[in-house]
Amino acid sequence: MVNLFARTPADNFRVMPYNLRLFAMLGLWGDRRKLYRLYVLLLLALNVINIAVLLMSIFIEMLCFSYLGNQLTEENANISHSAFNCRWYDEPIVIRKYFLRIILQAHRKATITAGKFYNVNIVTFAQLIKTSYTYYMIMKEMF
Which one of 7, 30, 96, 105 is at 20 to 30 Å from 111 when CA atoms are compared? Predict the structure, then answer.
């Protein structure tokens, strides 16, 4: 059978002759071409499943980071509004200076970035999914 614990696809192809002989000896199929096609189909099906699971896990991980980036941006905006709306102007001058620093610092946008050039949030995640699907459809049409 297909070696589910193979490290590479080449490992599966190394054990393929032994599996084909086993199938032939068991009398499951007499024609080796059909047997070979079945074996290759099993290998391709396992590769497709592995790729699908890998892509889903990547997209879920990206969604988690995007959600956290979105939450960070929203909470940063809330800090600025909360600090401004409290009665900081009735406090002593030292406290007022701290509040002004908090308000000014909170006006700078806080985001999670990928490589310091790509903001990670829900909007960019949706754009990435749309772009990936577009590239997939173009590749599907070409090949």
Answer: 96
